[in-house]
Amino acid sequence: MVSICLVEDEKSLRDMIQLNLELENYAVTTFEDGKEALSAFEKNIDFDLIILDVMLPYVSGLDLCRFIREKSPVPILFLSAKGTTADRVNGLKLGANDYLPKPFDLEELLLKVHILTQKSFVSKEVLSFEIGNYSIDLASFEVKDKAGNLVHVFSKREVELLKLFKEKENKVISRDEILDKIWGKDQFPTSRTIDNYILVFRKIFEIDPKNPIHFHSIRGVGYKFNL
Description:
single chain; alpha/beta; Rossmann fold; Arc Repressor Mutant, subunit A; 2 domains; 5-stranded parallel β-sheet; 4-stranded antiparallel β-sheet; 8 helices
């Protein structure tokens, strides 16, 4: 699911934007002031799009944009009542991808969100990568050894799980997050289901499956993937 961060201090507008984004099946995290958002961004910037109001309490949207651009290429969309050409140019110079003056049309906002998140998805998409002595082609679902010999052909769900691990490399992923992102909220597999997938990955990629160096189980939480 595409994740969006919305930083907007006007509650009614924040609630309206969040509701309509969630109706479009986006996962939305909101902050009501710049200080709160900055504190979160200092820990992690793990979103597909950030929507920033320019005039925020404590820390402005412009200052947040400067900080984000030092850490991440995530697309940024500015919302602002200051809609002059100079304001737009200033926002874009700081690294924003687009600028929408208030008041705005909801359909235009949703269109810009769609365009920016599509760009984000394409830029982050990985078509192949290596684990140990094996290469994985995510388009053909094939695993090959260094000599080019076919070792295994994954299922679609196995590939989706591998993609998630690659995107979250070196980070702990909870079982709940995996179930939500790979199986969705309409299906009800157990955490044991994920364990079985991890066992398959270990048999293929680990030299010693009982002492893994790539696919780690984090007791009581979930899993962690390292190349």
